[in-house]
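Supplementary notes (optional reading)

For those who missed the lab, this is the record we used. Protein: Type II secretion system protein. Length: 185 residues.
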Amino acid sequence: MKTVIPFGHLGRDPCSESPKKSVGFLPFSNLNHTRSAFTLVEMMILVVIIGLLAVLAMPALEKAREGSYKSRLTNDFRQFKGAFETYALDTGEWPADGGPGTLPVVMDGYVAADKFEDPTIMDGQWDWDGPGAFGFEAGITVVGSNADTEFLRRLDATLDDGNLGTGVFQQGVASGGSYTLILED
């Protein structure tokens, strides 16, 4: 008759082994268990890594937001410019000067009034500057803007020459703190 030895006891005499000593609730007394959760240290490391990634991503997000603002303003200026130029071609004259946030009545059908009367993305108001208002024949102005000068220089580089004191996009032509796209000098 053959003796069957259980797999776990191959090569050992189970009777000769000394029993394991129990050490109670000492730390690391049961090293054979598997963990199923993160430790506090691991969680803190994870929080620090996520924080660092967020800090690194902020400049890129800010640059993307600024690019979006610049694109939208450029588009708005070009749409309004096209509408006012179309009116001038149709009638042979520019609309009369208007106030901030008010689209001249004669422009109805050329541009949506609510688009012109809503605040700009720079928190300013659109303003139509008609013939002779500020030493030029026609211009589209943003008044009361909170945009910083560096942002406006980059916008000027897109619309004009990058210099807020020269060209067709200028600072302070209509009034202090305003930015004007001059359509006709």
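If you only remember one thing from this example: The longest strand covers residues 138-143.
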